[in-house]
Amino acid sequence: MRSQSSSQDAESTTPESDPLPLGPDSLTWKYFGGWRGMLFGPWAGSMQNMHPGLGAGVEDHSQFFDERFERLYRSLYPIYGVVFDGERAPETARQVRGYHNTIKGVDKLGRKYHALDPGTYYWAHATFFYSLVISVEWFEGPLTLEQKHRLFDEHVQWYRLYGMSMKSVPGSWEAFTEYWDDMCRNVLEDNKATRDVLDLSNLDRPPFMRWFPEPIWKIVRPPATRGFIWLTVGLYDQAVRDLLEYSWSPREEKLHRLIGRAIGLGNRLVPWRYRYHPRARAGWDRVSGRITANTPLVHTPARNLPPIDRRDSPVHYSPDLSEQR
C-alpha cells in the first residue's frame, strides 16, 4: 500500500498568512450546507473511515457510535461554520482543527497515525468537497467543467483556513480526480470503523423524533436502513464497491439516478431559506441584512450535546448554550 500522503502530486507549500473565508458569491455557499446533504452521512463517514489513519483514530478515540445522531448533528455546526461564518470562519476553523490535536496512536498493524497528519486531515476535507460535487450532480444533473474548476479552487481556499500544510492538496481539478481514484484503488481499506458506519441495525431514533413510538420505529427501521445503505452504495466509486464487496447493476444505477433527481425536484418545493442548515442559513441571513453581522453564531441545541461526562473533552464541540437565542 502506498503511504497515506504519497498519492498527492501537488507541490509542497505553506499556508497563507491571512486566508480569506468564502462568501455568498461562491458556488460552495450556493450548494453546501443544505439539509439534503444529510443523505450523504453514511457515504461521508464510511469514505473517511476507510483511510487507514482516520479509521484507526475513530476506532481508538471516538465514541461516535454511542450517540450516532447527536454526534452527527452537532458536528455539522462547526463544519458548516468554516464556510458560512464570514469573518469568524478562521476562528471556527482553528477550533475544528483543535478537536484533532490529541487523536494519535499506533494502529493494529503497527502504523503510527495522527489526525493532523497532512494526508489524513486533507482526506477528510476531500470527502466533504467531493460529496458536494457528487450531491449536486445526483440531485440536479451534471456540473460543467468550469463549475468543477471553480468548486475545486473554492475548496482549496476553504481548506487554507485550517492552517494546515498544503502539501497534500492536488493542484487542479484534474489532479484531484487522479488523487481520488488513486485513494479509492490503492489506499483505502475495509476496516471496522467503516463497517460500523454502515451497520445501521441498531440505529436509534433521531433526537428530534424521541416522540416517535419505539415499537413502531423497530418495525420501520430495517427496511428504511436497508434503503439508506443502498443509496450509499450507489454513490460509491466502483473501486470502493469492489473493496467492500457490494454488487451494483445497470438497472440499480438507473433507478438510483432517478431517485436522486426526484429528491432534488422535491427540495425545490421547500422555501429557499429552509433548505439550509441553521448555521448556513445564519450566514445567508447576515449577508442579506436579515440579522446583524455581529449576531452570535448559531450553535447546536442542547439535545445534541455530548453526555455530561464528555463535555470537557478537547475532542468534542460542546458549546456554552447560555447565550443561545
UniProtKB/TrEMBL annotation:
Pfam hit, one: MPAB_Lcp_cat
InterPro entries, per database record: MPAB/Lcp_cat_dom
TM region(s), chain numbering: none
Biased composition regions of type Polar residues, renumbered to the chain: 1-16
Chain ranges of the ER-bound oxygenase mpaB/mpaB'/Rubber oxygenase catalytic domain: 29-263
UniProt superkingdom: Bacteria
Renumbered residue ranges of the record's region Disordered: 1-22, 297-325
Protein name: Oxygenase MpaB family protein
